[in-house]
Fold:
Amino acid sequence: MLDCCALAAAAGVTPGSGKSQAEALCPTARFGPAREELYRAAHDALAAAAGHFTPAVETAGLGLLFAEVSGLERRCGPDPQLAHHMAQAAGQALRPGSGQALRLGSGQASEWDVRVGVGSGKFVAAQAARAARPGSGCAVPPGEERAFLSSLPLSALPADAEMLPPL
Structure:
């Protein structure tokens, strides 16, 4: 599983789950074939959009990018504005007609769940992106990382399942 809808996630399906496990957890789930070429094109479009803000863009997996954004306040405004501008740029890069061939086989434009997080480090930024609404950004101001992270569920921690308490 590369991704799943909210209904499947509520049933316990997560990216990385096997198909048989996902079917057992969510019997009404429908599965589509992986579209690696489409995903790679989308990833490259996101990297190009981030590159307009900073040349320091790092890929951490398909669709997951980190960019060094410190020092961009003069050009883009404070972090919340920067997150918003980056989310808009990423969304624009993934729109049909943006120069990238990001269309599904049926000719329908694909919908992309673009989220941007800005934080003092990769973990904080990744959690901020997860907290953002689709098509927007979330910024965690310096010094507020502890308050932001303490409100998250334990499942947000990068720990093996056996290390976490039972739900």
Observations:
- The chain is about 40% helix and 10% strand.
